[in-house]
Design brief:
Layout: E1 3-4, E2 13-14, E3 19-22, E4 36-38, E5 43-46, E6 71-76, H1 84-87, E7 99-102, H2 106-109, E8 113-118, H3 122-133, E9 138-142, E10 157-158, H4 165-179, H5 181-185, E11 193-194, E12 198-202, H6 205-220, E13 226-228, H7 230-236, E14 247-251, E15 255-257, H8 260-268, E16 273-275, E17 286-291, H9 297-300, E18 307-315, E19 327-330, E20 335-339, E21 345-349, H10 359-373, E22 384-392, E23 399-404, E24 407-411, H11 417-434, H12 439-443
Parallel strand pairs: 8-9, 8-17, 9-16, 12-19, 17-24
Antiparallel strand pairs: 1-2, 3-5, 3-6, 4-5, 6-7, 10-15, 11-15, 12-14, 13-14, 18-21, 18-22, 19-20, 20-21, 23-24
Helix pairs in contact: 3-8, 3-11, 4-11
Length: 461
């Protein structure tokens, strides 16, 4: 068995032997049923068939990965060739790189949970963290590893520029949280949030009018965004090609994390993470269940209009020189680009969909847009090709709230999950634990599709 490292943009193979579980020495061994042997350094190299896919079965309390209270690190140790040091920061089909969390054996845990959260992406982890912070007995159930889905490849952007009041509100509350992320999450290393700004370009009067309307919505919500002329845009983004640009929308408070995967890790710290492929919510012995399983959510809650939508990103090798600080987006040209904190330049053909065999056409489009809009990047190559995914709804807004007795959903984020996870965590914790229903839940409920109450989000990336 092996896994292709598609998300690393290369065709290297990661064998199961490259996955290492490192436990505290005081624990002495890993749980029964794993074909593992301890090395002298305390590491346990797990054989191919040992990756746990077994039901926890709260009733019979079967064993799952890790001992009660042990800290586990899961990482790609080798098999990545020359990409190794940089590539291990990414998720490779369920293998999380150097992630840490606290696991508890179901047999030891005993009584049922207050809340079971299904899905260890950033949203599920943020919800579980908030529930636990308020004293709830909570566990996160995940079939592979934390951040092994869409959260594993998101580049860490946080923006307040949206086109609906409800999206602006969720983004604003979350942006305030992220501005003090180090204080809230207390990571071992600073997460490095930088307010670099987002610039949305307009190549025609119609798009400029739409951006202007969106800025009006944003300003009413307290977002300090503004419309800029082409010349002002060129000042904000040195080297921007302004020929054919009618203007744009700018918010200086939008930004990126230097260590986006560190944010996911920080949300997971201290949580009870249980490796289990949940096939039915009936398996979970808990007072309430929150399903935050991204595109897999309809498998557990049938009928929800959530579909998987592939997204593709190109990355350069790390570049020491700072070439492009703001994120530049052209919806009309289906293009976005940004230099990340690690020096890599991110670029995307926003219209890229379907078979990965179309990669040469997508790469050619990125190259053409670089030459037109960002000639400063002309000599930058993009050797890494990364596949991610959105869990998308018809109006590109999430589905939040109760869908059945004791069952809640937080899914369908359409690429916004990382950006609004803190606000969603607070809202779900309020309703699950205290029965307090935030007004957001009456707007983004699952029933809006049948009732024709959609809230289309016009400002997408």
């Amino acid at each position: 068995m092996c896994a292709k490292v598609h998300r690393l943009g290369c065709d290297q193979e990661v064998t199961p032997t490259s996955v290492v579980y490192q436990t505290r020495r005081s624990k002495g061994h890993v749980c029964a049923g794993l074909d593992a042997a301890a090395d002298r350094d305390g590491q346990h190299r797990v054989a191919a068939g040992a990756w746990p896919r077994r039901r926890l079965g709260s009733v019979d309390a079967r064993k799952h990965l890790a001992l009660a209270g042990s800290s586990v690190l899961v990482g790609c140790a080798r098999g990545l060739g020359g990409q190794g040091r940089n590539a291990t920061r990414w998720i490779t089909h369920g293998y999380a790189s150097l992630r840490r969390w606290d696991c508890h054996d179901a047999a030891v845990s005993g009584s049922s949970l207050d809340v079971a959260v299904v899905g260890a992406g950033v949203v599920g982890l943020a919800i579980a963290r908030e529930l636990a912070r308020r004293g709830a007995r909570v566990a996160v159930f995940e079939r592979s590893g934390i951040g092994s889905g869409a959260s594993g490849v998101q580049p860490g952007g946080v923006r307040r520029q949206w086109g609906t009041p409800i999206a602006c509100r969720l983004a604003g509350e979350s942006a305030d949280f992220y501005a003090e992320a180090d204080e809230h999450l207390r990571p071992s290393v600073s997460l490095g949030f930088r307010r670099c700004g987002y610039l949305f370009l307009a190549h025609g009067e119609e798009t400029l009018a739409r951006l202007t309307a969106n800025v009006g919505v944003q300003n009413k919500a307290g977002v300090p965004s503004r419309i800029v002329t082409a010349s002002e845009a060129a000042e904000l983004v040195p080297g921007l090609g302004v020929e054919g640009i009618f203007g744009g929308a700018w918010c200086a408070e939008d930004g990126y994390f230097d260590r986006p995967q560190g944010v996911v890790e920080a949300f997971a710290t201290g949580l009870d993470i249980r490796i289990q492929d949940v096939l039915s919510l009936d398996e979970l012995d808990a007072g309430s269940v929150v399903v935050a399983a991204g595109a897999e959510t309809p498998r557990l809650v049938p009928g929800l209009p959530i579909v998987r939508e592939d997204r593709y990103l190109f990355y350069s090798e790390p570049i020491a020189e700072r070439l492009l600080e703001p994120l530049v987006i052209s919806a009309e040209r289906h293009f976005a680009a940004k230099q990340l904190g690690n020096g890599r330049v991110l670029a995307s053909d926003l219209a890229a969909r379907g078979d990965e065999a179309q990669q040469p056409q997508w790469r050619a489009h990125v190259k053409a847009m670089v030459e037109e809009l960002l000639p400063v990047l002309t000599y930058v190559s993009f050797p890494l090709f990364v596949r991610g995914e959105y869990d998308t709804t018809p109006d590109h807004q999430p589905i939040l709230g109760q869908v059945d007795e004791g069952v809640y959903v937080a899914a369908g984020f359409s690429g916004h999950g990382f950006m609004i996870a803190p606000a969603v965590a607070r809202i779900l914790a309020d309703v699950v634990l205290d029965g307090e229903s935030d007004p957001v839940l009456a707007v983004l409920d699952a029933g809006r599709f049948a009732d024709n109450r959609l809230v289309p989000e016009p400002q997408l990336v």
